[in-house]
Amino acid sequence: MRAIVINEPGGPDALTWTEVPDLEPGPDEVLVEVAATAVNRADVNQRQGDYPPPPGASQYPGLECSGRIVSLGPGGRDHAWNVGDEVCALLSGGGYAERVVVPVGQLLPVPKGVELVEAAALPEVACTVWSNVFMVGRLRPEETLLVHGGGSGIGTFAIQLAHARGARVLTTAGSPDKLQRCGELGADVGINYREEDFAARVKEETGGAGVDVILDIMGGSYLDANLRSLAVNGRLTVIGLMGGRKAELDLGRMLVKRLSVHATTLRSRPVEEKAAIVSEVTEHVWPLVEEGTLRPIVDRTLPLPQAAEAHRIMESSAHVGKIVLTN
Length: 327
Ligand SMILES: NC(=O)c1ccc[n+]([C@@H]2O[C@H](COP(=O)([O-])OP(=O)(O)OC[C@H]3O[C@@H](n4cnc5c(N)ncnc54)[C@H](OP(=O)(O)O)[C@@H]3O)[C@@H](O)[C@H]2O)c1
What we know:
GO terms for molecular function: NADPH binding; oxidoreductase activity, acting on NAD(P)H. The chain is α/β, with parallel strands linked by helices and 327 residues long. It contains 11 helices and 15 strands.
């Protein structure tokens, strides 16, 4: 089979489409013929050598895919998946390939009404947003969510899901066009972070109260402003470090407002934790996709051998939503 490999960390041209050894699924795994995968910021970090795959994970990039099951692992099976089933999957790596081995707990059905290729744009954003905003952040329908980077793959899904569940959504993005798209997806308030102090605007838009939950991709550079933007009992969930990993934490502000700060990453979680998230996503999120309330937001689709071009686009932040790569 062929896959995109990273022989040496570097720029987009470090991604090379190459012949690699065939794969065999183990117990409680299946082999999936990949129809499509999608690009995540983490793939860019991996390519640059800053985000190595966790132990045991494929060395090829790619944290999600859609495709068809072509074989089942050996041994007795206590799952309902069969050869020929169309699936999408959350991966620890290896999606940028013609085939990938997937633990059965990380498989999801392709939601009815979604094309197989489009379905590749869903697993990573659905699992990340559900686990952080709802399982960790416990966002309730009457509450308010601030989503940073509303035009990102993650942001476009977080806006739709929180809006669908009845929450008020504020979002930041770096251009009027992106903010307009965010509004179309359900954001109630758009804040251009290049022109406005987002914490001041959050205060203004919430009558001085602040927001209940923040989904943050910036980390260090936004920590203080995020804490200032939270309401009493507010929850900050940090999932990205695009603004650095270190900052000063004002515990006094946390004490007075009874705040909590969480930071999580999906990729390094054990298979059982991923399976629990996948199961909740299938139960709570997939019905909203099937009824058309949530859609995969695909900016563009390129052939997988053009992964380098897809990374260039992601690094320029010219995209809104997901960049999909097809076999
Ligand atoms: N922890 C996890 O499990 C997990 C899982 C998935 C993703 N993530 C993280 O989530 C983040 C988004 O991932 P993605 O794949 O969706 O990436 P992406 O589509 O490339 O999005 C990154 C976004 O950040 C925006 N941005 C840049 N600087 C900003 C700033 N100062 N304030 C607000 N927005 C800013 C960019 O657009 P504009 O500047 O043009 O607005 C762009 O839309 C990444 O940090 C990724 O590592 C974490």
